[in-house]
Specification:
Blueprint: E1 5-8, E2 11-15, E3 34-35, E4 38-39, H1 48-56, E5 66-69, H2 78-90, E6 95-99, H3 103-106, H4 112-119, E7 123-127, H5 133-140, H6 147-160, E8 164-170, H7 177-187, E9 190-194, H8 198-205
Parallel strand pairs: 2-5, 5-6, 6-7, 7-8, 8-9
Antiparallel strand pairs: 1-2, 3-4
Helix pairs in contact: 2-4
């Protein structure tokens, strides 16, 4: 059975896709089928109707926030993110997007940040993951050219739009966390350090 949602940290997380516009060396999907005991591999991507149908059976008020995340990049399914966000906001819920920040490259014909703001998105968490473009390309292996700069522009744009914004890094030796913190400060965003899973940490070190 495909896992559309899963619980952790008093939040509800939505698993829209396993596809991504990057192939980060530390990504959990390279080392495991999911997180927190949930198998997040999808045999098919859930439709907007399927997601809302699944959520209608839950007491959503008990969650701190509803988060678009999972084993892939949610903005590859931006239409679904926008539609479900609108539905969730109509229920008076807080909504967050976890993203790699490539949305403008993935959806070049749209003003993605304006659309997210219009839908009512409350906050966004963007994977910074490197203090320089050269290191970012080496560690994250993005599909699109200029992905690092697009990600930084996404952070700036979200902040300017009034969406609560933070950037995150994974704590591995290859990444200079303090230099990343300085980039975050220059962008005016909050900063968060993510811990690598044990399986991923072991695989990278070997």
């Amino acid at each position: 059975m495909n896992t559309i949602y899963y619980e952790a940290h008093n939040n509800l997380y939505l698993n829209l896709t396993n596809r991504c516009s990057a192939d980060c060396i530390f990504c959990i999907r390279n080392f495991a089928d999911g997180v927190y005991g949930y198998n997040l591999r999808l045999s098919k991507e859930p439709s907007t109707e399927e997601i809302i149908g699944a959520l209608e059976g839950l007491d959503l008020s008990k969650y701190r926030e509803i988060v678009f995340t999972g084993l892939g990049e949610p903005t590859l399914r931006l239409d679904v993110v926008l539609a479900v966000t609108r539905w969730l906001k109509n229920q008076g819920l807080r909504v967050r997007l976890d993203t790699n920040g490539h949305a403008a490259l993935i959806n070049p014909k749209l003003d993605v940040i304006a659309e997210l703001k219009k839908a009512g998105l409350d906050s966004v968490s963007i994977s910074l993951n490197a203090e320089s473009e050269e290191k970012y390309n080496k560690l994250c292996k993005p599909v699109h050219k200029n992905a690092y700069r697009a990600m930084l522009d996404f952070v700036r744009g979200a902040k300017e739009a009034g969406i609560s914004t933070r950037v995150t890094v994974v704590k591995i030796p290859e990444i200079d966390v303090e230099k990343c913190r300085k980039v975050s400060e220059e962008l005016g965003s909050d900063f968060h350090i993510r811990l690598l899973s044990e399986a991923a940490s072991k695989e990278i070190r070997e």
